[in-house]
Amino acid sequence: MTTHGQAIRQSPVIRGAIDAIVDEIRSKTADLVDIRPPQPGLVTSYDELVKAAGDTRGWPLLYPMLGSGAGNGVFVELADGSVKWDLVAGIGVHFFGHSNPTIVRAQLEASLDDTVKHGNLQSGTLPYEFAKRFVKLAGRKSPLKYAYLTTSGAMANECALRICMQKRSPGHRVLAFENCFMGRSLVMTSIGDNAAARDGLPVNTAVDYIPFWSDAEAARIGKTKHIDAVLRRLDEVVARYPNGHACFVMELVQGEGGFNVPPREFLEELMKACKRYGIPVWDDEIQSFGRTTQMFAFEHYDLGQYVDVFCVGKMTHSCAALWTEEMKPKPGLLSGTFTGSSVDFTVGLTVLDQLENGGFYGENGVFAQHHAAFRAQAEALIAKHPEWFPKTDEVTSGLGGVGGMMRLTPFGGAKEKIMAAAKAIYAEGAITFWCGHGPYHLRLLPPLPVLKLEHWPRIFEVIERGLAKAA
What we know:
It is built from 16 helices and 17 strands. It has 471 residues and is an alpha/beta fold. The protein has 2 domains: 240 residues, Type I PLP-dependent aspartate aminotransferase-like (Major domain) (Aspartate Aminotransferase, domain 2); 105 residues, Aspartate Aminotransferase, domain 1 (Alpha-Beta Complex). Strand 13 and strand 14 form a beta hairpin. The chain is globular and about 65 Å long.
């Protein structure tokens, strides 16, 4: 016996139609293999589209980028017919590139559902298939056991905070790293260490900031002394508010804060201290998930045993908060109209399958090879143009990051110069962005699964031209 829904998904007619659409898209995008300038006949209409897009929200687009709806892997076509290297991928969302046949197929399969959205009250099976698969992967090297799905990374963080606060009630303060980023909701902007993001908004959550790892500080006073100083700061704050903290939220690799990568012992000593105090460890991997040498950053650092609550988003399309048996909330704490759309879950399941079986991870995996290739090109560029990469008290290296989180730090990390460099590189044919709070960095989140190692020299030719303009 089969349901009508199963019969639709298994229909040879529908399967054949999906195959035909995927093949046609692959054929139509096959020639997008290099950057291109705009098509002259589309420039005027494109400028009008860009202006209209800015007018609808009240201020201009930061980048005048509007996609055509087509691309080929790391290449994206804009609505003016131009083609660029996409080295940011929607700040990590489009990790498998543009017009990826496997992702297109997953989207088409999602369209077969009778409704668009799944909710907590009425749902199909897809959300629970994704949650079950994700929990199984997370549980390989952590005690994480349950998941709640939601529609954005910020909402996943909101759920994680609720779990921690309920568990530690009446403790309501939050420990967080300096320069952390948590999302754009009212509560998350209160926790995030960025005053500009909450300009004019009330701070409605009590936060105590702990210094993050600093390569410059470790070089100045030594690694052990740096870690001890941060631990002392944690001890002081906890002593000031006995039993007052609901959690310590940690980005194991900072994203918006500057692609800052700490050593394992820094994170482990802080996590051990949290365990002694009974403070839950909340691992925020919304930007780092999937991009280190292992699928999870806690696997990369072998710290899964310390994680009590976990959040994911961006790359997975379906966003989620996970927690252990000990952190299990009371019924009704987590709810909402939507858990997500069918396409979130079909694409999310496809992403998890690709990550698990793509040979991407490990010391010799694809991502490690790409990071080595990035570093080789960056080091050659720095050697060629040392005047672009001066060292300062805060900038000890012109490059950094881990796996698919890559950064360059030209011009001493000066904000205006970094922003100008990103825009100049964009004009030359590659999309990058920036991160950090001083020093600032050029940020790359390239779609590594569809990037080729031989692409890196061509990419750096564009980056070099853009930096030359900014210099």
